[in-house]
Design a protein that fits this description.
The structure holds 2 protein chains of 2 kinds.
Chain A: H1 2-17, H2 20-43, H3 51-59, H4 61-70, H5 79-108, E1 124-131, H6 134-147, E2 151-157, E3 160-167, H7 170-195, E4 197-203, E5 208-209, E6 217-227, E7 233-244, E8 247-255, E9 260-262, E10 265-288, E11 296-301, E12 306-307, E13 313-321, E14 324-327, E15 330-333, E16 342-349, E17 352-360, E18 374-393, H8 397-416, E19 420-428, E20 433-442, H9 446-461
Antiparallel strand pairs in A: 1-20, 2-3, 3-19, 4-18, 5-6, 6-7, 7-8, 9-10, 10-11, 10-18, 12-13, 13-16, 14-15, 16-17, 19-20
Helix pairs in contact in A: 2-5, 3-4, 5-7, 7-8
Chain B: H1 7-29, H2 33-61, H3 69-91, H4 96-100, H5 102-112, H6 129-161, H7 173-207, H8 215-237, H9 241-265
The chains are: A alpha+beta, B mainly alpha.
Chain lengths: 463, 272
């Protein structure tokens, strides 16, 4: 008794997952869930820093934990959304594989619906008589179909001849490709979300980027912001070097839309920020105190010794603070904007250090070194930027791309090819005529198809 | 800032579309040859001016005309007109124009309100050939959905009025249903491959992730799910006629909502 019931239930489940109805219902449910998720994502926005702290304060920790566990803050990764996605995937698997045989049969089989009984099943059909015999007419009919790029088959049954002409059979394969492609794509997505990651790394010139789980390191050699003459940003350009086993392996310039890919890890130029502790170069005004020479202006690249013209001295800038502050004898930058820029200037005579001092952009007289033969004032500086790199490991990427390829090919085949089929049953009639039962079917484009069929019929009638 | 040279042509095209739309409206009541000729030729000449406008913009900007709302909407209207002219030529039923011509007129009106400066400097993220593929196909798809929308309204009206109407020129329900399906069959593959796939591949090239549930992405997914339902319901359950017309109307309204949502929501597509 219970056994029978179980089997019925199994059959019911099978029928359910085998049905288009379920597919439609699941698509609608996923659509509605997506709308809900979209609206929720706008109300409970998580696109800002420390959003979790904010909402925990707003709703209380207990409520927040509950909401988080239900997936309110990340609805597309919630159990309910994924549950319906899995149901859809199962539905697609079952639908595709059970219909697979049917589609393959329709695509490859010559004998499909060759039997005259099946003519009843076709919607478009007509009967007429043409003078002549089957043997005389067949080559001409074949010509009519060949002209339209149809495949043409004939078979005999006693005195009757059955003609089958078909075109665009690959359209059937298209449906299979679309659905299998979607599954492949979903599998790729699962692989990426389980084994991949995406993280954000900042790096200034000379920094090493720590890449989680990677057997190599990446060094930032340079980062530039290119602008056009109007000052609009043209490009962000970062130069990265892959370092493996202590050796520089190769160097690549990356920009937006041109990432560095190595061993399944990807580095994307994604953003930038002002570097508060380094500059590219500073422009200094050199003022000889005794007045023997006129003032000169020199450009000093960061951390490079530059000789002072017409003198035995040289200068170096070895530190920078955008918003100068000191605490416990340690210099730091109070903010990431150049509110009070200062450079740490060292003055050398030959190789020996004479003195060093912080020189300020807005307070040139501060920290003035008395008795020095030259005074240095900071005129301007060229800022240095951190590059913001999106570092990702996307192990499902190739699978996803393959799925996209399959679906695209499938869409092209099934949307731009129409599977058209014609059957003609030729029976000998009285008065040296042949009676023809003419039937046609198409996957879509009924309007054009019936026009084409009328044309073919009239061509055959006038043979 | 360079003076955009296309704006005058744009306005001429707009005025001609408007004239065409008015003539098509008159056509509902007076089916005569002068009205038909005016309506169709205004549409065709308008289309030529519109094409010139987009061409000038393309040349002046140095990139395809999809980089701001004005360009995007103008392109979408262009696609809707192109499809309409194709259907007109194919089915030879000018009455379709009475319902489809308001669509480009509305799009042009919306475009005309947008700022029209040319930005020659595309922001770095947009400097990719995937940008051209992604946006051009999305524009074409939405143009096709717009045509389906117009035809669907016509279907419902025709059904409601039945045969008791003075508007004798209305095409058969069957033909309207067929055009609706046709337009969606043109739009759906373009939308899938262009808006979703090309967009995902571009995102992968630019940011490392195919999909990040950005509001616009989610919106596109919802629209895609909806038209997918339409196709499956039609194929398997034989949803035709009114049901199909309603779905087509709702689908296009969702596409518009997602489109104008840009102005409110922000996210990755908030370039303009």
């Amino acid at each position: 008794m219970t056994k029978k019931k179980e089997r019925n239930f199994g059959a019911w489940i099978w029928d359910l997952f085998h049905s288009f109805k379920l597919a439609i219902i699941l698509l609608i449910i996923l659509g509605i869930l997506s709308i809900v998720a979209l609206v929720m994502g706008e109300i409970l926005n998580t696109r800002f820093q420390n959003w979790d702290v904010y909402y925990a304060q707003k709703f209380g920790q207990g409520m927040f934990d509950f909401m988080k566990s239900v997936g309110v803050f990340n609805p597309f990764r919630s159990v309910i959304y994924q549950f319906f996605l899995i149901l859809l995937a199962v539905n697609i698997v079952i639908c595709t594989f059970t219909r697979f045989k049917y589609y393959i049969h329709q695509t490859l089989s010559k004998s499909f619906r060759r039997h005259p009984e099946d003519f009843r099943l076709v919607n478009l059909k007509t009967t007429f008589e043409v003078p002549g015999t089957s043997d005389q007419l067949l080559p001409k009919i074949k010509k009519i179909f060949r002209k339209r790029y149809f495949k043409f088959y004939t078979s005999k049954e006693k005195d009757n001849v059955i003609v089958f002409a078909t075109r665009g059979r690959l359209a059937r394969i298209g449906y299979i490709l679309i659905h299998l492609g979607l599954l492949v794509l979903l599998v790729g997505g699962v692989i990426t979300s389980k084994f991949g990651y995406s993280t954000y790394k900042w790096g200034a010139k000379g920094d090493f980027i720590q890449v989680p789980k990677a057997p190599f390191r990446v060094r930032v050699d340079d980062f530039k912001i290119l602008t056009n003459p109007k000052g609009q940003i043209k490009d962000y350009l970062a130069t990265l070097t892959v370092v493996e086993n202590g050796k520089d392996l190769f160097t690549k310039k990356i920009e937006v839309n041109r990432p560095l890919r190595y061993k399944g890890f990807n580095f994307y130029q994604s953003s930038y920020s002002f570097n508060a502790r380094a500059i590219q170069s500073a422009t200094l005004k050199v003022i000889p105190v005794n007045g023997t020479h006129p003032d000169t202006v020199i450009v000093v690249p960061f951390k490079q010794k530059v000789p002072v013209p017409n003198s035995p001295y040289s200068v170096e800038i070895s530190d920078f603070s955008a918003d100068f502050r000191v605490q416990n004898d340690r210099v730091y930058s109070a903010s990431a904007s150049p509110k009070n820029p200062a450079v740490f200037l060292s003055v050398f005579k030959g190789d020996s250090l004479l003195y060093h001092t912080w020189t300020f952009l807005y307070f040139p007289d501060l920290h003035k070194v008395k008795k020095a033969k030259y005074q240095f004032t900071l005129l301007s500086f060229k800022p240095s930027y951190f590059t913001g790199l999106e570092v990702t490991r996307n192990p499902g990427a190739d699978t996803i791309l393959f799925g996209i390829g399959m679906m695209t090919l499938g869409i092209i085949l099934s949307f731009y090819l129409y599977h058209k089929r014609y059957w003609i049953l030729l029976e000998p009639s009285k008065n040296g005529k042949v009676r023809m039962l003419f039937a046609g079917a198409t996957t879509k484009g009924k309007h054009e198809f019936s026009k084409e069929m009328d044309k073919i019929v009239s061509e055959i009638k006038h043979l | 800032m360079q003076q955009p040279g296309d704006v005058m042509y744009f306005w001429v095209a707009f005025v001609l579309y408007l004239l065409s739309f008015l003539s098509f409206t008159v056509y509902l009541g007076f089916k005569n040859k002068i009205v038909t000729t005016t309506a169709i030729s205004a549409m065709v000449i308008g289309f030529i001016f519109h094409t010139i406008a987009l061409g000038i913009r393309w040349v002046q900007a140095g990139h395809s005309p999809f980089s701001n709302m004005y360009e995007y909407m103008s392109s979408m209207a262009w696609m809707a007109v192109l499809l309409f002219l194709i259907f007109l030529w194919k089915y030879k039923k000018p009455i379709i124009g009475s319902f489809v011509s308001p669509v480009p007129v509305m799009l042009m009106a919306a475009a005309s309100l947008m700022p029209k400066q040319i930005s020659q400097q595309l922001m770095p993220a947009l400097q990719s050939y995937w940008f051209q593929i992604h946006v051009s196909m999305a524009v074409l798809a939405e143009g096709a959905f717009a045509v389906a929308f117009g035809v669907s309204i016509m279907y419902l009206l025709r059904k409601k009025l039945g045969d008791k109407t003075n508007i004798k020129a209305l095409p058969s329900l069957e033909l309207l249903d067929d055009i609706n399906y046709r337009a969606i069959s043109i739009g759906y593959p373009l939308f899938t491959v262009g808006a979703l796939f090309a967009g995902a591949i571009w995102a992968y090239n630019a940011w490392g992730n195919f999909w990040s549930w950005d509001p616009k992405e989610t919106g596109a997914l919802i629209i895609w799910l909806f038209y997918t339902v339409y196709l499956h319901a039609r194929y398997q359950k034989g949803w035709r006629g009114s049901k199909a017309a309603w779905m087509s109307i709702i689908g296009f309204i969702m596409a518009l909502a997602s489109f104008f949502g840009n102005l409110v929501v922000g996210g990755m597509h908030a370039y303009v």
